[in-house]
Design a protein that fits this description.
globular, 336 residues, seven-stranded parallel beta sheet, alpha/beta, Rossmann fold, 11 helices
Length: 336
């Protein structure tokens, strides 16, 4: 069911690069007034220019989503300067690539504050305004890590699991209250974004997205669709569906597969510069755009997304993916 919004104001966190930047462009093409939230001034300015080049109006707000007061202040400015927020997109995240044995307690705290509490804080601040109007959409961003933890990304995996629990609980409450506010979750696959160029890492080689890689514009289309349709979950990419189904059916076998492949599949063969800047404590003060270094292998379309947007074929696709996953796991298990 399509959703009618009372205004054309959207707020996007993590808007300085990657998925957030691609999503801002997607909404700009549709005539939205866009609030751009992130820590990095240079990236925000780059996104603002993108939006305005497409004929849109943008408001930039340097905001750390791990601080609720900053998020609430941003919401107040948005509503005062652009109008009532009709759509809130929780896209900001943070991560560390590192084995658990080398992780520090403060790193788990920081990732949790940004990647989990950042989504909670954004949801709370936007919901407070939307509840007064009984209208609006809140989009939460997740990945297969919400169901299946990935080695070398334990902090992010924990945060994604937490997001899933919060989402389940809050969505049930909205249904109980018969609220007209829409809450849904977009599950994203490996993406060719700036995330791999500025995320903190202790790995010897340069980072790469694991599995089939998609362009951030695919994610942006999914997010735009989610904001306008009352659909609980939208899974983007074949790897997303395979991972979720595989873990549900054969979690022990997935442990073994990821123990073997999870380390090499998240790194290139090129050595990493140990002195490269990362965005863990402070934003990287550069405008790096939306795309990462993997344009040559990134797909610009997802059949799974197309199926999600045309729900009559979704069941058939899910059954096919399940059979494919089961067959693949059986082959791996018995190939020796």
């Amino acid at each position: 069911m399509s959703i009618i919004h009372l205004s054309n104001v959207v707020a996007i966190t993590g808007a300085s690069g990657g998925v957030g930047r691609a999503t801002a462009r997607e909404f700009a093409r549709k005539g939205y007034k866009i609030a751009l939230l992130a820590r990095g001034k240079e990236g925000l300015e780059g996104t603002r220019k993108d939006v305005e080049a497409l004929g849109g109006k943008a408001l930039t707000l340097e905001t750390d989503v791990s601080e609720y007061e900053q998020v609430a202040s941003a919401v107040e400015r948005i509503e005062n300067e652009l109008g009532p927020i009709s759509i809130w997109i929780n896209n900001a995240t943070l991560g560390v690539f590192s084995p658990v044995k080398e992780m520090k307690p403060d790193e788990y705290k920081k990732v949790t504050e940004v990647a989990y509490l950042g989504q909670v804080y954004g949801t709370l601040a936007a919901y407070e305004r939307m509840r007064q109007r009984n209208s609006g959409s809140i989009v939460m961003i997740s990945s297969p890590m919400a169901q299946r933890g990935i080695p070398l990304q334990s902090a992010q995996s924990g945060a994604k699991h937490a997001i899933s629990g919060f989402f389940d609980a809050f969505r049930a409450e909205l249904l109980h209250d018969m609220s007209n506010i829409n809450l849904n979750m977009v599950h994203l696959p490996a993406l060719n974004t700036t995330h791999f160029n500025w995320t903190k890492s202790r790995l010897a080689n340069k980072l790469r997205p694991m599995g089939k890689v998609y362009q951030p514009e695919v994610a942006a289309r999914a997010i735009y669709y989610a904001a306008h349709h009352n659909q609980r979950d939208i899974h983007v990419g074949s790897s997303t569906i395979k991972t979720v189904l595989g873990n549900a059916l054969f979690p022990g076998l997935m442990d073994g597969l990821l123990a073997k492949n999870g380390y090499p599949d998240q790194q290139t063969e090129e050595a990493e510069d140990p002195n490269r800047p990362d965005n863990f404590e402070q934003p990287v003060h550069e405008d790096r755009g939306a795309h990462g270094d993997f344009d040559d292998i990134a797909a610009d379309q997802s059949l799974e997304l197309e199926a999600a947007m045309n729900r009559g074929t979704t069941t058939l696709l899910a059954v096919g993916a399940g059979l494919l996953t089961a067959g693949l796991i059986y082959w791996v298990k018995n190939k020796d």
